[in-house]
Amino acid sequence: MINVIGLGYIGLPTALMMASHGLKVVGTDYNHELVDMLRAGHTTFKEEGLDALFNSAVKSGIVFTTEYQTAETYIISVPTPYDKFSKRVDTSYVVEAVKNVIKVAPKGASVVVESTVSPGTMDKFIRPVIKEAGLETGEDIYLVHAPERIIPGNMIYELIHNNRTIGADEKEIGKKIKSYYASFCRGEIVVTDIRSAEMTKVVENTYRAVNIAFANELAKICRHDGIDVYEIIRICNMHPRVNILQPGPGVGGHCISVDPWFLVGDYPSLANVINESMKTNDGMPDFVLNRIYEIMKEEKLTDISRVGLYGLTYKENVDDMRESPTLQLLASQKRHLADGLKVYDPMIEADIVENQYHDLSGFLNDIDMVVIMVAHDEIKKNCMDLKDKIILDTRNVIGSLGRGWKLRTL
Prior knowledge:
The chain has two domains: 2-192, Rossmann fold (3-Layer(aba) Sandwich); 205-409, Rossmann fold (3-Layer(aba) Sandwich). The chain is globular and about 70 Å long. It is α/β, with parallel strands linked by helices. The chain is 41% helix and 13% strand. Strand 5 (109-113), helix 5 (121-132) and strand 6 form a beta-alpha-beta unit.
């Protein structure tokens, strides 16, 4: 049996996928409300294909509980935030999960950490926990690191098709864990050592963060000289060896906005490019806020309550708000002792922030200026409704369609 610990954005789809492909799975989470929802037959977040996968897993016998189980294998998928002062990974959730696992784990059980961690985390934080409990790794407990590699909005496809990495002390254990993932994963599954697996996951997200930062910095440079950054990127990308990404209002989620800081925290004197890149990305919500004030002044718009932010999530067509640029922007505005921006997101039903709307027409009726923070399909389909508004398009949704409109970009 496999006991999946943590039923969030990564743990739940992983548990469902394994169960629906013939493995006996029990999902555990300390959140009683979340477990009750799953037991009642309801998924806890929106994702294309998730409900169908959930129904398949339930038919296959998956069980949800708040209790840790006696199992052959444990998959730990709990949050790993970073300390915003030291920039180092906060391993407290993983450590607590491991402590609870080894209380019930039989001799020879495998503990697989899916949570993204910094290089050396298993050595510095997890092995000592096992040793303090009087157990030996490689005998009583086998440690494995199998970092997730999926993204909200395309989870089901990526779980099946993405390549995976399995880090293990013993090759035989690595092969055994590989067989579990191979039950559904069609991508290549590489078995390596734990430290290499830790490093590769962090490096993947750092690579993406650095490239996003270049695009964001380019947007600032072009803004300074009044040049169209999108035209520059379009022309540059005609070069066969150039592929510049699109700038945006910041980065969010639990990967690109968090993981690169692990390297900065662990290697402060070495990760200079990474450090500056993360500062650039983290500074984009403030840059957007300044653009809002600049445009308001240009358009002689004095009432901040007539300005609306379209989008609360960190990316399009998902309901995931973790580290979203919009939430960062709103927090920055409050730090400047200002308030009043209206907010709307078609993916968010609950009331999350002040001045939040739940329908597009009502939102647009109450504002003179709209700031497109997220490129949801809804706004792409209804962009003609914005033609009489002042627009700050941080996602290049409007493009050439907005000729003659009061359209601004980053």
